[in-house]
Amino acid sequence: MSSLRLNALHITHYKNVFSADYQFEKPIHCFVGNNGKGKTNTLDAIYHLAMGRSYFSPINAHTIMHDKEFMRIEGHFERENNTERIECQLKREASKVFIRNGKKYNRLSEHIGLLPTVMISPADVDLINEGSQTRRSFIDKLIGQADRVYLQQLIQYQKILQQRNALLKQMGRFAQNAHDTLSIYNEQLVQLGTPIHHARTSYLTAFEPLFQKRYATISRGNESASLAYESQLNDSDFTTLLEAATSKDLQTQFSTVGIHKDDLAFQIDGYPIKKFGSQGQRKSFLIALKLAQFDMLKKSTAVTPLLLLDDIFDKLDEQRVAEIINLVHESSFGQLFITDTHPERTADVIKQTEQPFELHQL
């Protein structure tokens, strides 16, 4: 088992971080300072280098300061005794450029999985409150960092789905040859969607026990949490689903069945957490979910991921913070990056880990 490390970081014009240089020699690093100083954005810059995009916004231009025209971040990582120099460049009205060891990526998807990383943030509440797309994204990040074939199949599936939806809009409900034309796209969706469904089923089956273990620790066994993979393909093969949905698809001008409709059902003691979960239960659920993601990535990639903790001391009670700190005590983490508004509080908590740490005042 190897650990991933970030040794150096250079930021220029990333959101409200004007320019910054860091050297990371210790296992734990804490960015501390008042709100608006760029702590979260610094953490997001690390995530961006690892995952190819911001954790908080899908819009590339949002990573550039309002009065600037470009953004650049560079990180020097160490994985399996190899140094990886990763650079991201972005100009307004231009495509993002991602570079590894001086060579530009042809496709950003080639980068995913090189630097496994997990972020825990107050924004994670969207996993409970928002629609199914947010939870599918969580699944895809979980699997995509460990399985490049899955990621490529998913990208191709989305392309074919867009083409099929465009065709449905052109045909409308008065199409004469809809079945013959759609059959080509149906076959391609089945070829891609079926293995995606199998991968999701397999990964989530292995993921749930890790999640339940983490939740039991946080809740001290007072209640049980579960997640269920909901997919139309659980009960029927994809070809049958597509054929049965043809008339409906032509009416709605949209593909109504497939793995793009998958979801996760989150429950506490058998009840939907979105409707019946208390604030404390939701926090516990999300922390357990993300720590299980850390466990699963570590298991499936054989690399200990980076762990990024954004503003957790303000948002979580001592018990939930203690569970995260226990992760460090177990020596099962690689490198930890934390943001907080109170340097003294951060130092007091981190000292409990008995690990070397460094405070970076912003």
Present the secondary structure layout.
Layout: E1 2-3, E2 5-14, E3 17-23, E4 28-32, H1 39-51, E5 70-79, E6 82-91, E7 97-100, E8 103-104, E9 117-120, H2 126-129, H3 132-144, H4 148-171, H5 178-219, E10 225-230, H6 238-244, H7 246-252, E11 263-268, E12 271-272, H8 273-276, H9 279-301, E13 303-304, E14 306-310, H10 312-315, H11 318-329, E15 335-340, H12 343-351, E16 357-361
Parallel strand pairs: 1-13, 4-15, 4-16, 9-14, 14-15
Antiparallel strand pairs: 2-3, 2-5, 5-6, 6-7, 7-8, 10-11, 11-12
Helix pairs in contact: 3-5, 4-5, 5-6, 5-9
Give a brief rundown of this model.
The chain has 362 residues and is α/β, with parallel strands linked by helices. 45% of the residues lie in helices and 24% in strands.
Explain what you see.
The chain is an alpha/beta fold. The chain has 2 domains: 1-116 and 305-362, Rossmann fold (3-Layer(aba) Sandwich), CATH 3.40.50; 127-301, Up-down Bundle (Glutathione S-transferase Yfyf (Class Pi), Chain A, domain 2), CATH 1.20.1050. The chain is built from 12 helices and 16 strands. The strands form 4 sheets. The protein has a 6-stranded antiparallel β-sheet, with helices on one face. Strands 9-14-15-4-16 form a 5-stranded parallel β-sheet, sandwiched between helices. A 3-stranded antiparallel β-sheet has the order 10-11-12. Strand 7 and strand 8 (103-104) form a beta hairpin. Helix 3 (132-144) packs across helix 5 and helix 5 (178-219) crosses helix 9 (279-301).
